[in-house]
Amino acid sequence: GRPMVTAKIAATLDGRIAAPDRTSKWITGPQAREHAHAQRARLDAIVIGTGTALADDPALTARRPDGSLYDHQPVRVVLGTRELPPDGRLRDGTAPLVQVRSHDPREVLEALPDALWVLVEGGPGIIGAFLAAGLVDKVQAYLAPTILGDGHPAVLDRSVTTLAQAHRLHRESVTELGDDLLVTLTTALR
């Protein structure tokens, strides 16, 4: 009754997606990024929050290593109530843009009635909201052999207050991508 939802995380070994100064570009290496972009070319939609849209001005396109675009581009979805800049890269016409003016991840899936595979790419609050709502089927964690110590966490889920409430996942596979690892996990069966 809903699309498969995959949460994608690219993080350091200690679960950080950005340094304290918010620098975050190229946490993972080129092979991991190439893999992630090839996957985007197979997705129906990719989801971020307005915080990520405003802070990073992402394109959310599926690009080959040479920078050219794949033929298929996922629908770009932004969840949140803040306005997006009219000149942002999400509005470049490369792929459709859907803004869901809400904080409810269920409304994202309702806005994508024909989608079969949706990727939730960030930031930490959006991934946490999808997890808390029980809407994540898989987690793909691209792990870089890096430790930041302090920094911004990959997931924020305030519904988890004790270890007993933690989201327990099942390892599906581990793939080496250069120096990085892609750990694919599934959640409990729906």
* β-sheet strand percentage: 25-35%
Q: How far apart lie the N and C ends? A: 11 Å
Class derived from helix and strand content: alpha/beta
Number of helical stretches of at least 4 residues: 4
Anisotropy-based shape: globular
Helix % is 10-25%
SSE series: EEHEHEEHEHEEEE
Q: Point out poorly predicted stretches.
A: none
Strand order of the largest sheet: 5-4-3-6-1-7-10-9
Describe the structure using short key phrases:
10 strands, alpha/beta, 4 helices, 190 residues, 8-stranded mixed sheet, single chain
Structure notes:
The chain has helices at residues 30-40, 50-56, 105-110, 124-132; strands at residues 4-12, 16-18, 45-49, 75-79, 97-100, 117-122, 138-144, 152-153, 170-177, 180-186. The protein is α/β, with parallel strands linked by helices. The chain has an 8-stranded mixed sheet, sandwiched between helices. The protein has a two-stranded antiparallel sheet with strand order 2-8. Helix 2 links the parallel strand 3 (45-49) and strand 4 (75-79). The protein is globular, with a radius of gyration of 16 Å.
